[in-house]
Amino acid sequence: MFELRGVDFGFAKSAPILKDVSLTLREGEIVGLCGKSGAGKSTLGRIVACHLAPDSGQVLLDGKAIAAGYRAVQYIHQSSIFAVNPRWRLGRIIAEAWEPDDRTLDAIGVSRSWFDRYPHEISGGELQRVVLVRALSPQTRFLVADELSAMLDPITQVEIWSFLMKRRATELGILAISHDAALLKRVSSRQLELSERRVQPVEGG
């Protein structure tokens, strides 16, 4: 199980963005997180994935601090171009984490013919799929999907989320961050809202 306990966070010389935030995420669970623009959803997602360290509070996996090395919690942002080395070919970018099987590539819609290309040689939606494949190493236990499908067309959105919802059977836990409340209601078992620096359950979510 993944936990945040009493997390506070603020950037230097600015008002706190998060105050006493706690949440839990279990294996095989999809939790939706919504909130207004600027509320701090992406900041919270980065703390969950250990890209940012909280000012206070705890970030725990199975009751312990997350160890260094390959992170069992992976973060995917909607602007995938910033998550890859532009000088690397796509095959090397994926192989940095693992060697996916054809079934996974086909399910997400990634062609091996792309492996010799550079990030700028495919579309933003295609690169988002590549980043998702890279994040789904067998070592990954939790995924932070921050507006994961915002850049994808509606049909591809359905394909990607259908695949991820099936991955719950393999005990993958997902924190789905989105402005799209209807999407979160469809894909998640419960929804949270980040408002006034705190996380609260969404009524009826």
Could you tell me the CATH topology label. Rossmann fold
CATH architecture: 3-Layer(aba) Sandwich
Summarize the main sheet: 6 strands, mixed
Alpha carbon gap, first and last residue: 21 Å
- For the largest beta sheet, what order do the strands appear in spatially? 6-7-8-3-9-10
Number of helices: 6
Tell me, what is the CATH class? Alpha Beta
Name the CATH superfamily classification. Answer: P-loop containing nucleotide triphosphate hydrolases
Instruction: Kindly state the percentage of residues in helix.
Output: 25-40%
User: SSE order, as H and E?
Assistant: EEEHEEEHHHEHEHEE
Q: How many strands in all?
A: 10
What is Rg? 17 Å
Structural class comes to alpha/beta
Shape: globular
Mean pLDDT: 92
Number of domains: 1
β-strand percent reads 25-35%
Provide the low-confidence segments as ranges.
none
Written account of the structure:
By secondary structure, the protein is an alpha/beta fold. The protein has one domain (2-201): 3-Layer(aba) Sandwich (Rossmann fold). Helix content is 26%, strand content 26%. The strands form 2 sheets. Strands 6-7-8-3-9-10 form a 6-stranded mixed β-sheet, sandwiched between helices. Strands 2-1-4-5 form a 4-stranded antiparallel β-sheet, with helices on one face. A hairpin with an 8-residue loop joins strand 1 (2-9) and strand 2. It starts with a strand and ends with a strand.
